[in-house]
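Exercise 7 asks you to align residues with tokens for two separate proteins.
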Amino acid sequence: MPVRSHLLLPLASCLLISCGGSSGDGPTTGFGSTNNLDNSFSSDGKVTTPFTGGNNAIGSGDANAVSLQSDGKIVVAGAINQDFGIVRYKSDGSIDNSFGLSGNGIVTTNWSVNLNSQADSIAAMVQDSTGRFVVAGYSQVSGNFRFSVARYLSDGTPDHDFGFVGSATLQPESGADSSVNAITVQPSSPGATDGKVVLGGFSGVGGDTNKFALARFNTTGTIDTGFGTLGSSVFDLGGNDAIYALGVQTNGLILAAGVSTHTCVLARFHADGSQFDSSFGSTQTRINSLAGTVVVPFGGSDDCQLRSIAVQDDGKVVVAGYTITTTTSGTTSKFALARYDATGVLDGAFGVNGIATVDMGSNAEANAMAVQADGKFVLAGTAGGNFALVRFNANGMLDTSFASDGKSLADFGSGDVAKAVAIQPNGNIVAAGSSGNQFAVARYKP
């Protein structure tokens, strides 16, 4: 039976100069009036896409991932009305009506027919070597949230040759709730493009018992039973644990960046997902004495979260996230970067003793990172209720040539959060996320 795939009739995508307002969601630090927005994109550098719900009510949209096509089009994925949702934009910021089946550029897929799903959401996306989109997140099946992965053709239609008519799910632990936060491709050999899909997230029963969770699927969408235990593995770090980003080193070893109860953690696993790689890191930096893990020393008395990872051509590993610290003087949020060598030792030549941070005010989170061709790092997230971008030089120092002293704010209206960022071939920066219940996309000049 084919999956039920349908398209939503969108409300007009509005230019934010006319439908946005001041958010007033919190103070920010050190932002000037220059934001580097590219005015050739939707006339002011910003676009939102609202959605309709049942009975023409206002719908909901939450964008979490972005992918760039070679023709300059921008594909944004997340959840639309609790279904997998994908929107494609042209290079000028308008919706590409040729994407999907019903001629409006918006694709939603409810997997209830083949999965008996009550809710679905995309958290991460990669584009394979043929231009197909592999997306992953969660599907709620029979009351439990499960790892969920699906593949779409380059035109936005579900790929029925993947999994069971386009999708597949996996439950890393019986009876537990689980969700994917990250996706990566693990090449079958160095330089190969035929790799399997590795998913990372969490699994657990109850709010404070989550564990790191990994799973691997074959390119056909079947579970790779040679990975972990029959396709998945869970790792208890001793706290409330979750993977938010994945990377693969040239030798196939899997890197995972995430959190264990407000502590930033980087871990490395064997290529088959069976166990931690105990050769990674040092005994002085482990969390709860677990060999193969590294506590990233960003600080932050209230919270520390790793949200992104990049493996450089020289084998060094860069992780990004944010910290929150509260003192008698108030709360401070910082975007943060750290660089490690391939063995898990901090690179002292990067930033200050391997660490780079920048103060973003009292209400900020860094959710994504992209690496430019020149080696500079762009972090995207939120600050004061607005899209926030920060750029660091390749050596970890703040790039004050970007926007206002290295930092940029873009105000869409209210509750603006960038959750994904990518670099176009011409150097332009694309950030995607949400503003209220709408997809939001901004493009910046380099």
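Second protein for Exercise 7:
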Amino acid sequence: MKRRSYLKGVFGLGTAFILSPVACDTKGDELTPIEMERLIAAMADSILPETDTPGAIQAGVPTFITETWQHYLSEKNKEAFLNGLIRTESYSRDSYSRSFSQCPMDVRINILTYLESKETYRFAILNKIRNRFFGPSFIGLFKQLTVQGYCTSHAGATKALRYDAVPGHYESCVLMAENTRSWATK
């Protein structure tokens, strides 16, 4: 009996996801490669802007995201990623009458926050189930690729994180002082 109720729950969750606006088909809209490049750069810059350390653009994160998307994601995730880019641009044009890359930083952050709130459920278990069956959300995947690209870039590893190619002898527990950067070679 437990199996039946479990299957009903999974079926109901899947149906709810498919009927939700997150899963809507966006094939009517198209982005040119230049628009995609600008959109990816603007989104990465919104997530990791330049401060006293280099930002995502200076670290080459947009190129990393594009290469990862084109060559290393599964077909299902590639399509979800493209649909997420199209959804982001469409929402920006519909709500703010301009392209995402032309919006000021506070508007970009509002757009990303809104899209993330639409892609996540209130209960963490539902997010885990969705990730397991349908893959990660677009904004979650984009954030993950942005941070991964930044931390593995030369600028991110040497200027934002502490990098020591040959750290010397092993110490299992090291106390870190206040306001110390994290290690790049974790």
